[in-house]
Amino acid sequence: MSLLEALALVLIGGVAGFINVLAAGGSMLTLPLLMFLGLPAQEANGTNRVSIVLQSVSAVGSFFRAGARELGVSLRLSIPAVAGALVGAWLALRVSDVLFEAVLIVAMAGASVMMLLPQPRLETRALTPDRLTPVVHLAMFAIGMYGGFIQVGVGVLFIAVLYRLLRIDLAQVNVFKVFIILIYTLPALALFMLDDQVRWGYGLLLAVGSMSGAWLAVKVNMGPRGALWVKRLTLVVIAAIVLRLLFF
């Protein structure tokens, strides 16, 4: 690996980490970069998850230090998402790339509609476990299944659906999203490691940048205009994903 390649991994990782934590879609930058640097698709997919896990660890730690404390709720939301991700990964081995893209376009279009609908009336009650209804758990299972199936843009769905179902501020929704993605990415990374599909040198350099980007994204998210940033960047990511699939 040359010095230029190492710098590219750190710099692109930083941009991707910022996008992933504040919205979603950073893998649209990192996966092509890893493959451009010579990694086969499976190795790129596994190596990219090193960055996702470490940027999520960085973001969760920063959120906790900034005052986000609802760990119990995050864990409850993560359980059905992990179960769904395992089902989605199993399904992904049995369908065509054409179906992948069709599902992705439909999911992103649905998420954009949810984000553009009028803002729901936000709940002022504390987000206690009793507010996590069966509908919320079913939605987490479905999005987790999508994440295991495709992964690209999964954070967009978590943001859009939790925002509508829980009716809490987008900045708080983003905290839950980051934690859930961390939890369900860990077993996925373990599977790639067992199959020897992780290039640690590339993954750790990518993670150096992504952890820095994640730290900056947390600062923006917890700021006074954090919710507005989340909404705007999420819509930009949705548009980029749909245009990439339709025209390139």
UniProtKB/TrEMBL annotation:
The keyword Transport applies. Keywords: Cell membrane, Membrane, Transmembrane, Transmembrane helix, Transport. InterPro entries: TM_pro_TauE-like, TSUP. The chain crosses the membrane at residues 6-38, 74-93, 98-118, 138-163, 175-194, 200-218, 230-247. It is found in: Cell membrane. Belongs to the 4-toluene sulfonate uptake permease (TSUP) (TC 2.A.102) family. This is Probable membrane transporter protein.
